[in-house]
């Protein structure tokens, strides 16, 4: 092969790869336009697949160390894989078409192959056209330009590339906007009963100590932890929840059924077992829902293990003792509004005093088990189905106007409740009691306090040089938070939060 011939081929291959890239982008954008940011978007199952093939150890550290960054990385990888995959299909189609001297074939084969892959990934025959058609259209656009003689006219290629690029760019802008609209998440809907619920929220605001740098008792920004890359998007009308397994009779309820049941409003804190000791994966909201057991008892459960598996629309599942649900809630409201999608719309479980992970979002099934089984996180080695550890968090170190130091944070002990928070400003040699916010109204587990955190504040005259501040809590059973420090894995972090202050 002469060098000029080779050069021509290389120049020619470049546009093919580029057209492939454009086809990949167009396929992803088209899928987004029709599916929005939901599991029917082609990137979502690929991100989930990545998680499934990832070794446990990576997932474990991704959640404790990388936090949501790990999720963003796998999402980015999934994007690149899908774009590259569709691009490869398009490029292959184009080179086969060129060889057979058939210009319709690459268009059809790109569209059909992309559609087929999308169907395989998302299970959606119709929405998969959103990926297939734009990918095919890009190839059509590229092919529509008069075919180039063997002695390639480079300018012609360049023109094709620019025209295709501009079309894909325009399509991306429109597709993104349409997909955003489809994703929803516009204005949240109120629950009604707004006066009553606002009254409770006002009470909570009044009980907050108002320390700079410490979130109020009802969180302004509630954390999220999701095992899948893209949250399920559940239609209120399509949703139902069924009690299955070891029951006399399966019971299924819809949203209308849930809303006709007796409602409860409740302040409750959630905390993730995978957070760090002074981490931020702990928050409190006012939840509205119905008692889980009102529904479970209708099915007449008869479990051999006294255990239950909650299952969700994202195929998440967690197992734990039925007893833990005794005071559990099926929540459909959060802070006076419908439950947001990120927190489990339309319904999630709330299990008082237990780690966040068994508070299953987008709940779809309550399976009464005959024998013990493992939940999703337990299969990864976590032990997060039990009651939470007691913790006092240090959130703020403030200088007051009169030259003193003000320390503040939250303390949480699940349904055991917080009795006292103590602060040491000399590395643990001496201790003083901190001021505590009054408990939020309500009660669970036969207590007259709710399963919710309290705020603490401690003000002191600083010694004038560097000193070590340590914080610890005692729960209402009189048990002091253990001082021994462990990381989050597998049973949640323990130890006393400390910080050097100057
Ligand atoms: N269906 C479903 N429920 C879920 C999860 C999930 O990934 N899927 N994550 C769990 C974990 S690990 C925690 S800590 C809490 C977090 O609830 P939040 O996202 O509302 O804060 O939800 C739990 N419920
Ligand atoms: Mo969690």
Rounded to an integer in angstroms, the radius of gyration calculated over CA atoms is 28 Å
Low-confidence stretches: 147-151
Neighbour order of strands in the largest sheet: 2-1-10-5-6
Shape: globular
Number of strands: 19
Please outline the major beta sheet: 5 strands, mixed
Helix content: 25-40%
Query: Class by helix and strand content?
Result: alpha+beta
Q: State mean pLDDT (0 to 100 scale).
A: 91
- Which ligands appear in the coordinates? the ligand Nc1nc2c(c(=O)[nH]1)N[C@H]1C(S)=C(S)[C@@H](COP(=O)(O)O)O[C@H]1N2, molybdenum atom
Describe the structure.
By secondary structure, the chain is of the alpha+beta class. The protein has three domains: 3-182, no CATH class; 194-206 and 214-379, Oxidoreductase, molybdopterin-binding domain (Sulfite Oxidase, Chain A, domain 2, Alpha-Beta Complex), CATH 3.90.420; 391-501, Sandwich (Immunoglobulin-like), CATH 2.60.40. It contains eleven helices and 19 strands. The protein has helices at 3-35, 43-53, 56-66, 68-99, 105-122, 129-144, 154-183, 194-207, 255-260, 292-298, 376-379, and strands at residues 240-245, 251-254, 264-271, 282-291, 307-312, 317-321, 329-334, 337-338, 348-350, 363-368, 391-392, 396-399, 405-412, 418-424, 432-433, 435-436, 454-460, 467-475, 497-501. The strands form four sheets. A five-stranded mixed beta sheet has the order 2-1-10-5-6. Strands 3, 4, 7, 8 and 9 form a five-stranded antiparallel beta sheet that branches. A hairpin with a 5-residue loop joins β12 (396-399) and β13 (405-412). The chain is globular and about 85 Å long. The model is unreliable at 147-151 (pLDDT under 50). Molybdenum atom (MO) is lined by residues 225, 272-274, 356-357.
């Amino acid at each position: 092969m002469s060098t000029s011939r080779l050069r021509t081929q290389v120049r020619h291959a470049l546009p093919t790869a580029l057209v492939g890239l454009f086809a990949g982008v167009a396929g992803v954008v088209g899928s987004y336009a029709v599916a929005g940011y939901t599991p029917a978007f082609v990137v979502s199952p690929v991100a989930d697949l990545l998680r499934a093939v990832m070794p446990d150890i990576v997932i474990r550290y991704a959640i404790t160390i990388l936090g949501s960054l790990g999720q963003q990385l796998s999402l980015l990888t999934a994007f690149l894989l899908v774009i590259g995959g569709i691009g490869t299909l398009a490029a292959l189609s184009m080179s086969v078409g060129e060889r057979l001297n058939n210009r319709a074939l690459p268009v059809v084969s790109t569209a059909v192959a992309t559609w087929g892959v999308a169907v395989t990934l998302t299970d959606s025959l119709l929405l998969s056209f959103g990926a297939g058609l734009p990918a095919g259209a890009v190839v059509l656009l590229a092919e529509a330009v008069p075919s180039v003689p063997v002695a390639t006219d480079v300018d012609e290629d360049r023109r094709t590339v620019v025209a295709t690029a501009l079309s894909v760019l325009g399509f991306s802008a429109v597709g993104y906007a349409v997909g955003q609209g489809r994703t929803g998440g516009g204005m949240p809907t109120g629950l009604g009963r707004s006066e009553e619920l606002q009254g409770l929220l006002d009470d909570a605001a009044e009980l907050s100590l108002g320390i700079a740098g410490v979130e109020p008792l009802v969180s302004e920004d509630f954390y999220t932890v999701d095992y899948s890359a893209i949250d399920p998007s559940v239609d209120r009308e399509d949703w139902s929840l069924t009690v299955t397994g070891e029951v006399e009779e399966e019971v299924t309820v819809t949203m209308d059924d849930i809303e006709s049941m007796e409602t409860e409003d409740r302040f409750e804190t959630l905390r993730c077992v995978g957070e760090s000791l002074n981490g931020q994966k702990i928050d409190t909201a006012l939840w509205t829902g119905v008692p889980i057991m009102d529904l479970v008892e209708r099915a007449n459960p008869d479990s051999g293990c006294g255990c239950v598996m909650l299952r969700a629309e994202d195929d998440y599942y967690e197992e734990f003792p039925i007893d833990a649900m005794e005071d559990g809630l099926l929540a459909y409201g959060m802070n006076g509004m419908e439950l947001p999608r990120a927190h489990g719309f339309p319904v999630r479980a709330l299990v008082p005093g237990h780690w966040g992970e068994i508070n299953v979002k987008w709940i779809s099934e309550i399976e009464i088990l005959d024998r013990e089984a493992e939940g999703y996180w337990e299969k990864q080695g976590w032990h997060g189905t039990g009651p939470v550890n007691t913790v006092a968090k240090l959130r703020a170190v403030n200088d007051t106007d009169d030259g003193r130091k003000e320390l503040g944070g939250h303390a949480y002990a699940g349904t055991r409740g917080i009795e006292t928070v103590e602060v040491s400003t000399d590395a643990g040699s001496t201790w003083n009691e901190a001021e505590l916010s009054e408990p939020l109204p309500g009660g669970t587990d036969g207590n007259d306090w709710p399963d919710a955190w309290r705020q603490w504040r401690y003000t002191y005259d600083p010694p004038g040089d560097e000193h070590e501040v340590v914080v610890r809590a005692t729960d209402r059973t009189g048990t002091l938070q253990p001082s021994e420090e462990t990381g989050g894995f597998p049973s949640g972090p323990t130890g006393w939060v400390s910080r050097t202050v100057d």
